[in-house]
Design goal:
Order of helices and strands: HEEEEEEEEHHHEHHEEHH
Radius of gyration: 19 Å
Low-confidence stretches: 4-16
Distance between the termini: 28 Å
CATH architecture of the largest domain: Sandwich
Largest sheet: 4 strands, antiparallel
CATH superfamily of the largest domain: Jelly Rolls
Number of helices: 8
Oligomer: single chain
Helix content: 40-55%
Structural class: alpha+beta
Mean pLDDT: 82
CATH topology of the largest domain: Jelly Rolls
CATH class of the largest domain: Mainly Beta
Strand order of the largest sheet: 1-8-3-6
Strand content: 15-25%
Number of strands: 11
Length: about 240
């Protein structure tokens, strides 16, 4: 899925000292965004990279007909602004209250040269996001609606950061999910209802989900059909 991986962006050295990149990041003030506020727009000059400290954002592009296409979601730990050169090719909008720190592009080479750990983490994040984008291309082109939704729910659950828990918040609107998966809003809503009716998930609110039958969702995510996945989970 084209979902930017969460997790610590800057590691702490074993000796307990923060590497130079971490210190530099901490010097940058936190910037807080309200839900639906933009961090940057498509076509804006790319002057900083951004590290998400808390919250969720969506990345989208505006198509020639004026419609929006969601191309990814990112949460705490993700690095934003890596996907382009001089201008941002995506817009970035908060979908929940968000806190971010910004590092000027013109300082990036200096920071990476001074701190190999920061440079390594930056490369790892670029690799994760490239892999996610490639997976998304295959997902949209080959999977059924059930398979896409199952893969998406498992991905959001994993990125929520609650190890061993199948309860997670899903702050994005269903319309955003539909755009991201290449489905109609009605299809996403219908499939979510179907997943609940079959006892695979439970939505305690519009934005909170619990996975009840992980085996079924994993089977669907691996390319199984609905009937095959149910049979596999029951065996």
């Amino acid at each position: 899925m084209c979902i930017a991986s969460g997790g610590n962006v800057i590691a702490i050295t074993k000796a307990g000292r923060a590497p130079a990149g971490f210190v530099e990041m901490q010097r940058q003030p936190l910037r807080n965004l309200d839900a639906h506020e933009h961090l940057y727009f498509e076509g804006d000059a790319r002057t900083h990279i951004y590290i998400v400290a808390a919250g969720w954002v969506k990345l989208y592009r505006t198509l020639v007909d004026g419609q929006r296409q969601v191309v990814g979601f990112a949460n705490a730990g993700a690095i934003l602004g890596l996907e382009s050169d001089a201008l941002h090719v995506n817009a970035c909008e908060a979908i929940s209250p968000v806190s971010i720190r910004a590092i000027p592009i013109n300082r990036l080479s200096e920071i990476c040269a001074a701190d190999g750990m920061f440079a390594e983490q930056l490369l790892l994040q670029i690799g994760r996001q490239l892999g996610a984008a490639q997976t998304q291309l295959a997902t949209v082109g080959a999977q059924t609606a059930e398979q896409k939704l199952a893969t998406f729910l498992l991905s959001i659950c994993r990125l929520s950061g609650k190890s061993g828990s199948d309860d997670f918040d899903m702050p994005m609107r269903r319309g955003d999910v539909a755009e991201f998966l290449g489905l109609r809003l009605e299809t996403v809503s219908r499939k979510m209802t179907e997943f609940q009716r079959r006892g695979w998930i439970k939505m305690s609110s519009l934005y909170h989900c619990r996975i009840i039958n992980r085996d079924v969702l994993e089977a669907l995510g691996e390319g199984g059909e609905t009937g095959d996945a149910s049979s596999r989970a029951a065996s």
